[in-house]
Amino acid sequence: MMCGRYQFDADAPAFGEIVRGLREAGGAFCSGEVFPTDRAPVLLAQDGAVRPAAFVWGFPNPHGKGAVINARAETAGMRPMFREALRIRRCAVPTSGFYEWSHDGSRRKYRFRAAHADSLYLAGLYQYFDGAGHFVVLTTAADASMQDVHDRMPVVLRQAEIRPWLLDNDSVFPILEREHPALTREAQQEDAEICLW
Fold it and tell me: What's the sign of the alpha-carbon dihedral 84, 87, 88, 93?
């Protein structure tokens, strides 16, 4: 599984506006390490503006237990589960970085983050199931910063790409096909999650 956990630090100044908007709306969300099926912040396009919402990470799995948390960028437009969402229900997932584990036998945990910023936004898709918002993270082939750890990585959005990703259909495939922003990585210890109300 690629991108099975990520970090959202609600106290980070970069996320102040997002957190204020969610608290005003009264939605619960997790801060700290975010796990599949947690409720976490996303950014959506609503009435031509970018607004925060708290959605569940993962689409219900149509084949049984668990959740589908990722979608391959290369095939999302062809898969019935993701095709319509890629066209009209895109989201941006605010993070402080995402996690991956080495596959060399050591199972070392790494956090990947933006090289020159405190925030990292991932491209996602969302859908409603029984009235509740759910999202998945889009993944693509790993770049040089990740290839020795995993062959896949999340699609990372530059700050200037958030609005085009959400609002401009013509920007979708150029964003999915371009090179990724530079990432750095650091070894991590296990952290606890905190859910905020």
Answer: positive
The C-alpha atoms of residue 93 and residue 134 are separated, in whole angstroms, by 12
How is residue 180 written in tokens? 């990724």
Q: What is the pLDDT of residue 197?
A: 43
Name residues whose C-beta falls within 8 Å of residue 98's C-beta, 6 or more positions apart in sequence.
3, 5, 6, 7, 111, 112, 120, 122, 154
The answer to whether 76 and 138 are in contact (CB under 8 A) is yes
In angstroms, the CA 124 to CA 68 distance is 12
Please list, in sequence order, all residues whose beta carbon lies within 8 angstroms of the beta carbon of residue 47, skipping any fewer than 6 positions away: none
- Domains in the chain and their CATH numbers? 6-196 (3.90.1680.10)
Q: Decide: residue 17, CB within 10 A, 0-12 exposed, 13-18 middle, 19+ buried.
A: exposed
Intra-chain end-to-end CA distance of the chain, in Å: 29
Amino acid letter for position 34: V
Number of other residues whose CB lies within 10 A of the CB of residue 108 = 13
* pLDDT tens, residue by residue, 127-171: 999 999 999 999 999 988 888 888 899 999 999 999 999 999 999
66 token code pair: 């668990």
Hey, which residues does 30 pair with through a beta bridge? 195
